[in-house]
What we know:
single chain; alpha+beta; Immunoglobulin-like; 4-stranded mixed sheet; disordered C terminus
Amino acid sequence: MTPAGRGVEPATSTLAFGLGALAVGIAFGTGGVVAARAAFGPGTALAGATVGLVVGIPAALWFGSSRRGRAPRLANGHRLRRRVHAVAWIGPVFGSGITLVAWSGVAHSSGSGWVQAVGALLAAVLVTGLVAPVFPAVRARATCTASPSDVVAGQPAAITLTASGPLRIRPLLPAGSTRPAGGRSRGPRQVTVEVVPGRRGVVESLALELASSAPFGLVWWAREVIVPLARPLHVAPRVGPPEPVRPGTGDHTDDTVRRLPTTTGEIRGVRPYRVGDLRRAIHWPATAHAGALMVTEAERRIDEPVVVDVTLPPDPEEAERAAEGAMTTASGYLARGVPVLLVTLEAGGRTVRPVVDRVELGRRLARAVPAPVPPGVADGATRRWRGRSGT
C-alpha cells in the first residue's frame, strides 16, 4: 500500500524547464505586441504582450510536460505529475487577459498618459501573479515528523508535516483534507493533515500535492511528491460481519486436538489421565499408588486457542471482506478472554503466531497478503478463511 513511482525529478531540472517555458512566453509576448500594433495600433501593444505571455507560458508548460513521458500511476489510479504545473489556471489566465484587453481599449480611446501608466502597472502585477508562483512551487518541500502506528480503514489518521514555506498541502494517497501551512512568511512551519486510508495495508509513505500562489494569490502552481512516513502506518480492516468458528470441534477428534498448557492457576488435585493430557502433567507417585496413570489438575487445566486461518482471495474487494470477517470473529474471542492463534500469509511467508489484543490483530491482518492461485484454479474456488481449534 505504498504509493508507486519515484516522485518528481530534481529541482534544477524543473527550474530549467520553467525558465524555458518563460522564454517561450516572452517569444509569444513579442509576437502579441507585433500582432496588436498591426491590427489595432500602437496603443494596444501592452495588451498584446500580456495576452502573448499568459497564453504562451501555460501552453509551453503543458506541451513540455506531455512530451517528457508518462508519469508513474499511484495505487488509486492517480497519475503522479512530476513537473510543476498550474492548478485551475484557465479562469485566472483568461480573466487577466480580458482585463488587460479592456484596459488597453480604454487607454487607446482616452490617450491619457496616466491611464497607460496604470495599465502598464496592472499588466506587471498580473503577469507577476501568474508566473511568480512557479519558483516557490519548485522549491516546495515537506517532511514527515510524526505519524501514528495504527489506524482502522475508513478512520482519519493525523500526520504531522514540516513544510518549507507557506504552502497548500493536499494528500493524494491516502486521500485526505487540504490544509494550509501558514505562519510566518519565511522558514519552515509545521502543519497537521488528516488522511483516511480506504483499505487495510501497511502505509510507508504519502503522496502529496504541494502548491503555492505567492505573492498575489492569482493562480496556484503545484508539484506532487512522495514523502516517507516517520514510521509505518498499519491500517487494520474494518469490522465486518462475523462467521462462525467452533472451537474444539469440527474435523478434529479428541485424540488429535492438541492443547496448550496454562501457566496460571493453583494445583487442585490429581485425576485419571485422559487422551490429550500433557506427558509432563503425569503425577508419578499418585500413578504408583493407584496403579493407573494420574495427572495433576490446576484451577485452569488447559487453554484451548481458537485458530483462525486467514486465506485471502486474489480479488481486492473479496480480500477486504474476508479480512473484515476475520477481524470481527477474532476480536470477539479476544474480548471474551479466549486465546487466538492467527495464521496468515505475509510477504515473508506463512506466519503462525498468537495475538494478544486488537492492535496486534489489526497489524497482522494489515500485513496479510492474498494466497497465490495455482494455474487452472478458479478464483471462486479459493477458500477465504476458516477457523478451528488446536494448533
